[in-house]
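Support case: 26Q complex. Customer-provided input:
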Amino acid sequence: MSLTVDKFIEDYEGMFESIYAFTYEEGSIEQQYHALGRLVRKYLAKDWSNTRSMYLDRKAKQVYYFSMEFLPGTQLTNNMYNMGLFDTVHEGLEKLGLDPEKVERAEPDPALGNGGLGRLASCFMDSLASLGIPGNGNGIRYQYGLFEQKFVDGYQVEVPDNWLRRKNVWEIRKEQSSCMVRFGGNVWLEEDEMGQMVPQYENTLNVLAVPYDTPAVGYRNGIVNNIRLWSAEIPEEEESNYATLESRRDIQEITQVLYPDDSDYEGLLLRLKQEYFMVSAGVQSIVRYFKKLNIPRKHMHEYVQMHINDTHPALVVPELMRILLDEEKLSWEKAWEITKHVCSYTNHTVLSEALEKWPVDMVENLLPRIYMIIEEINARHIEEVKAIYGEQKAWDTSIIRDGMVHMAHLAIIGSHSVNGVARLHTEILKNDTLQPFYRLFPERFNNKTNGVTHRRWIHLSNPLLSSLIDEKIGDKWRVSPSELKLLKGFIDDDATLNELAEVKLENKKRFADLVERQFDLKISPHAIFDVQIKRLHAYKRQHLNALHILARYLDIKENPEKEVQPRVFIFGAKAAPSYLYAKEIIKVINALADLVNNDPDVGDKLKIVFVENYGVSYAEKIIPAADVSQQISLAGKEASGTSNMKLMSNGALTVATLDGANVEINQLVGDENMFLFGLNADEVNELRPNYNPHELYQNNKLIHKVMNSLIDGTIPGVESEGRAIFDSLVHYGDEYFVLEDFTSYVEAHQAVDELYADQKAWNQMALLNIAESGPFSADFTIKQYADEIWHVPSYSKPGEGVELVDRESILETR
Ligand code: 26Q
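Agent response - structure generated as follows:
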């Protein structure tokens, strides 16, 4: 949109006064932010409404991305930038005497997700809009996001995240589009006058689902898509039934809080309520929209796609069946054909034991009609499979088994597409985790390697780097990320390499300032900044990282004269509140940080920063400052990873196992441009039966020394936590092969130090990594989902928005 600075100033002053009835100079920073957000939302409203009408007029096929999590990060800057208003607004604010960055920083960062899966959903929302694809988010408006993490004496303590305390400027409450969601009660089928079986309900708990819509602004193409988050409320007409506080709480708690990804998660009834609530409201509102198009229902799949982001929304399958059968009066066969064509499913986990399942009686009591439908889906599936493949295959793929409802089985049987999120992950799904299904439905399985939006993760978070890239190759990479490849033309250009190094140094200085302000710790920007940012999980092996740091510390103490390449280890990680082992690792790292950071013998040689309350906003500051990216999960365990992609595209060099998307990074940059270590997935499987970590502890001097220092008081205050880690590795089998991979991990880090001594070689490698990161743009990923799974076209005007060449063709050029 076109906007002059003067017009903006006038609009801003007007907006501020209309909200607060005093002038902006008197306002708090939060109020100044709020008024700006409201104004930007006003500017985008026309495009939002036009996009909606355009899709409706053209009866555009719509994709609905069902996800229990979205992690959008702050939206003001992103929206201004995608609309092309960024420079004008910044100039205007400065003229008004306001600091644009300070105003932008006042925006709360909604933590409506746990980690990778939620952030991926948000990157996808950006790419859908930027590609002009009619894509809608469908999720939950949690009143409290993921807990806020505090460290108290090095221990993680969880504090509720009341992110809605201040009003959310981006959302619009759409009461007129509310739906009713039914839980519990008794259900039976009665024959109607047409001879059809119609369900009768009694004593159900009715919950009103109220949608809040948030815009997803496309990059310079006038497209604004919709993200719909549902909130649970007491239906007005039933107010009188909810006289007691307790009964009111039962309803309100449905959308109160996001579940942390708990490792020892016991099927909690409330989580199942959340899943069905979001699914039912979403599917109802989609069917309502579809009916406006006046298209015969048998063509529904040509106009509607529902995507199931992990199994959490797998109830989409029986819920759509319920509506088609009970409300639209379709036959089972017709409803089933439509459902299978409409639904598609992405798996995000490797571990079969982590696949979601629910006790039968829980599903039956909470969702009686849905359970009947699941039973029928299962019975028909079993019958078909048994007839062709026999008893065993039917058992292996049964939805209901051992008293549990298996959500992945439901999602696969009810979908036309099942995808993994990186090549290796998809292979593991086909050959191992979901193998019986692959044998049954090979045509359904496909890979869609994850991606990240380079507009947020390079342009917005790293403006210095993006200016440098613009200067070298022009600015087309924002709409055509494969252009980043042109940077390879500068690989021998000393001036460019030095400029790249200056950009990195400046970003490191900015992050170092932040660390000093927030955590009262001085770090040298000339040290290597070595980063591991991700949820805390044993398989991700933050403890491997810690053991290597401990080895360095011991070495510095034993050899005070030795020259050491200074290094700052940066962690960001939350542990699920009930995941004791993960919390023990946090405590040990914090205690080690205390020890190392305060030891005068160490000085700048070694520092540890554990960023408290890591989230999207911290990531935006850490990633541009990173020299080293740690992607060190045990091979075969990480489905994809996405911080690996963000860090690579910001010029960090990767220390990695061949796991998840690291394999594809490796294919792009080659062994010589990253630091690989450890066993690969096949080797892990081979060694597993004979693995003996105790022997490694006995026979390897360094391992022995490092492990002992966990339990001999070297690190003060971790008697029990140090012992817990020690025992799990030395005595209890070291499930994630930490000791096995330790030696080659240490060697990889030695290679990092050696390379850093050769600044030119380092900068060349960093530049090459940026240049090869184009294929990890979520634009490519979404283009593949759109072409190969959803079969939806783009509605951008020619020449506007994102233009893409084929992803596979870039991947093949190496
Ligand atoms: C399940 C039941 C009850 C409560 C919570 C959950 C739950 C919540 C979140 C289970 C799993 C998650 C999140 C999983 C996740 O983030 N997986 C990551 O997805 C990324 C995007 O595909 C991948 O890059 C990562 O490899 C994968 O770990």
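Residues 114-117, 120, 259, 261-262, 265, 271, 348, 356, 421, 450, 638-642, 660 surround 26Q (CB under 6 Å).

Case will auto-close in a few days if no follow-up is received.
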